[in-house]
Write a sequence for this structure.
């Protein structure tokens, strides 16, 4: 089972499940924990190969559906019937899959830095990464990915968190997560363009050059239950880049449901 941490303050409070992006760890949510824990019980998980789950078996033909099932295994183990799910980056695909396959378990979705399609820039980055994965040192590849997260050098905190959390990601685990990008564009588009009668907050950094425009273009597909907030002074990892604004907006969304 995946490694997890819980912060429980009342049996009467709703649960929020926090899911990080590929290669990172639950540390990406630590700037949310103090504020969110005053209102909700929290469940933070490390995905397979990441953080405390670095020894968790991926299983044969691992994909995002398996990742979603592993998260729900923890939720079931803790006997949480229904909760809010919050994801960042590729973690938003896992949240959306859980909502697709188990809508009765999802009170709402918070989709930060949502990856609703693989944009042209992202495809170019993935192609380059695949070309050099067996040529360049793994440490240099991770540094390059960190620069992609922080393209103008403005959001060093998010870049440093990524480099710190990905430090323990083995090369074998990195290759598994990289392989998940194959054919992901069509699957992500189809997934996010299916109507979901579940309250959803898409929250994106104003300088998320990889994914903000694709979310804005596709927002007509998301239905009346969805809303979009753009975080000022933030890039892709908007929950770190501008944590105060992110926490205020996200808590306002969750607390008013």
């Amino acid at each position: 089972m995946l490694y997890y941490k819980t912060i429980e303050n009342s049996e009467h409070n709703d649960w929020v499940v926090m899911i990080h992006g590929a290669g990172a760890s639950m540390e990406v949510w630590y700037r949310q924990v103090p504020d969110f824990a005053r209102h909700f019980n929290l469940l933070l998980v490390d995905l397979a190969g990441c953080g405390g789950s670095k020894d968790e078996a991926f299983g044969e033909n691992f994909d995002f559906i398996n990742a979603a099932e592993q998260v729900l295994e923890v939720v079931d183990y803790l006997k949480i019937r229904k909760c809010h799910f919050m994801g960042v980056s590729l973690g938003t695909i896992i949240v959306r899959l859980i909502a697709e396959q188990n809508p009765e378990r999802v009170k709402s979705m918070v989709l930060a830095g949502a990856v609703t399609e693989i944009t042209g820039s992202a495809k170019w980055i993935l192609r380059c990464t695949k070309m050099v994965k067996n040529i360049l040192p793994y440490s240099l590849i991770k540094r390059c990915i960190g620069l992609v997260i922080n393209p103008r050098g403005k959001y060093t905190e998010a870049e440093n968190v990524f480099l710190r959390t990905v430090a323990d990601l083995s090369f074998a685990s990195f290759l598994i997560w990289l392989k998940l990008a194959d054919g992901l564009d069509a699957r992500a588009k189809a997934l996010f363009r299916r109507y979901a009668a579940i309250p959803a907050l898409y929250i994106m950094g104003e300088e998320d050059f990889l994914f903000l425009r694709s979310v804005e273009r596709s927002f007509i597909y998301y239905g009346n239950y969805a809303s979009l907030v753009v975080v000022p002074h933030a890039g892709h990892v908007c929950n770190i880049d501008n944590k105060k604004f992110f926490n205020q907006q996200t808590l306002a969304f969750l607390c008013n449901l």
The CA atoms of residues 97 and 142 lie 27 Å apart.
